[in-house]
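Q: Joint fold for the lines below.
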Amino acid sequence: MRRVVAFWLIAVLGASLAEAAQNAPQRVRAFAALPDWTGLWETEVSRAVNRLSGKPAGNELEAINKSVQLVGPAPYTEAWGKKLQADLSTPAAAVGASTAKLCTYGFPMIMDVFQIFQAVVTPEETLFVFDNGEVRHIYTDGRGHPGKDDLWPTAMGDSVGHWEGETLVIDTVARTEGSLRMGPNSLSAQAHFTERVRRLDKNDLEDQLTVDDPVALMHPWKLTLHYTRAADLDRMLPWDCANDRNPVVDGKLSVAPP
Amino acid sequence: MWRSLTSGLALLLIARSGEAHHSGAMFDAQQSITLNGTVRLFQWTNPHCWIQLLVPSQTGTTEWSIEMGSNAQLYRNGWRSNTLNPGQKIIVIIHPVRDGTAAGLFVSATAADGSFLGRAPAPASP
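A: Joint structure:
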């Protein structure tokens, strides 16, 4: 009896090792075929803000604002434009805009702001890991989006992707309807995002983003986002909101001494 | 019509976009004040670092709260968590808050010997 058990144990173990040995070279080859996006990446606005030890103000702020494309004009349908105008015209919206404190951005704004990110490319998925703790998971194992019973709106939406040469093509749906968090723009729950991400050279990464939204937009909204390597950083520096000393008092931001 | 109105609102709301955490509207960027004082506390924190500075005044001593960028932002500008220590005498330039409280937005700082704290600001573009 003991011999029989021992035989089967050895047989199972041997089969597992054989499978692992078979899979390893495949996975190594899959990794080797992927582009190298290691390092930390940042937008132009991140570079501009990080030149300062305080906050941008005056002309500096104006110049920085212009480089955030997702707060620029979007090709809204007339109906969505009127809805947006009504939403933004309330006194509460004005107070909300002047007192907003942003610690997370959600997709797509996270791709166009100050947060530095690391791109982790594996055969099964690519992750964009941001310094404020937000993460985009882009599954590249051949799956599609979940069925409607398994899919609900989230700040990041649901992303799947595939490789066309060294370009990662990303398809994102199920973003929560509403504001893009920063600036005046908003999108409906029907928004559908396509991205083509590729490295232009050693220090430049590009994301061609197309936003389709049959409810909010007259035609696709196309943007090209550009990132450069944060060459002065050798590790991710965490950014959080642990010490918020700006309470809202009487509808205005204030300073609270410790 | 709706586009121009939305565009106007965009100008209002866009003011917050160049900020890492909150609007800078509370600070008067047209005014600069120079404070000569002693560090009580340096908070190396996120989303903002802060200097608590004791400044001699007509009524004795006034404590100023000076808001800076994030520590990651300061790190890239040559600051470290031990750049300032309690008791250190420094000169700080700030944009004051609009409501008159003893607080402001950090612009630059020098040590008592005149050397810049952190990296010296880049010269203004011509």
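Q: Anything notable?
A: Chain A touches chain B through 59 residues (CB under 8 Å). Chain A has a mean pLDDT of 90.
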